[in-house]
Amino acid sequence: MEKTAVNTESHKLPRHLAIIMDGNGRWAKAKGKPRTFGHEQGVRAVKETVESAAAMGIKYLTLYAFSTENWNRPKYEVDILMKLLIKSLKKELKTFQEHNIRLNAIGALDTLPKKAARELEEVIEQTSKNNKMTLSLALSYGSREELLQAVKSISVKVKNNIISSENIDETIINSHLYTHDLPEVDLLIRTSGEQRISNFLLWQIAYAELYFIDDYWPDFSKQHLEQALLNYQNRERRFGKTSEQLSES
Ligand code: FPP
Predict the structure, then answer these.
(1) Which atom of ligand 1 is nearest to the CA of 88?
(2) How large is the C-alpha radius of gyration of the chain?
(3) How far apart, in Å, are the Cα atoms of 51 and each of 36, 132, 151, 189, 221?
(4) Residue range(s) defining the domain that contains residue 67
(5) Which atom of ligand 1 is nearest to the CA of 70?
(6) At what angle do helices 222-233 and 35-56 cross, to 10 degrees?
């Protein structure tokens, strides 16, 4: 029988949950409103998701907030997204402290507008001792770019005899990614009916369970999160093994 309540024992929950928050624009368009209204409502869903995930005991939550490709959107929309980011960081510092959440950011952070980068740095610093959940915002993030810079910095180390090429392994690659201090992703959720990865955490989702839902991001709620977790808990993760091997161990 399908379980109806999420099992919040730590070994039953995804340790690392990642979300591609998609559909803000279409949500707004369907209501005859500008796309930016969708982003504003998207922030509400971010808050509810962060608080619910922390309360349920998720240890790592990573949100795709702004991709490298998003820089190609109209300047007006990019500006609004950056303003929303700054406003939310200022406003939610209190929430992070109350819920013992550590803020982290992954991506080409040096390409963010100075004001956004400064605010981000400030909240990361102020929450650095928190340890209930690590919330990572992927900002100006692209997975291929992340892998590219990892390859470049490993190459420099090989050239300077800091690493020998024979010793390059998964641990070394992991340690050169933006996500070096995060575990690999267990569950990836994407909203809005699109079933794509869109250059998000390509290396880190190798064994992740994927969960796609039709609702647009601004409508995402605690109930959606619970449904996704229930679905995850009813799957068998085999990591290449057989079911029999799993039940023996
Ligand atoms: C996708 O909707 C969403 C984004 C571009 C980024 C998500 C941004 C937010 C939820 C708001 C700001 C975030 C923070 C952390 C303050 P879309 O515009 O691609 O929608 P569409 O596919 O319908 O056009």
Answers:
(1) 16
(2) 19
(3) 23, 11, 36, 17, 11
(4) 10-142+184-236
(5) 5
(6) 50
Q: Please give the DSSP secondary-structure letter assigned to residue 15.
A: S
Is residue 114 domain-resident? yes
Q: Residue 219 catalytic?
A: no
> Residue 3: pLDDT above 80?
no
Whether the CB-CB separation of 183 and 16 falls below 8 Å is answered with: yes
CA-to-CA dists, residue 98 to 51, 94, 104, 216, angstroms = 10, 6, 17, 28
Instruction: Enumerate residues lining ligand 1, CB below 6 A.
Output: 21-26, 39, 42-43, 46, 65-66, 70, 81, 84-85, 88, 137, 217
Q: pLDDT of 8-30, one tens digit each?
A: 999 999 999 999 999 999 999 99
DSSP 124-167: HHHTTT--SEEEEEEEEE-HHHHHHHHHHHHHHHHHTTSS-GGG
Overall domain count for the chain: 1
Whether 241 is covered by a domain: the verdict is: no
pLDDT digits (tens, 9 = 90+) for 209-245: 999 999 999 999 999 999 999 999 998 777 888 888 8
Kindly state the tokens that stand for 72: 């190609």
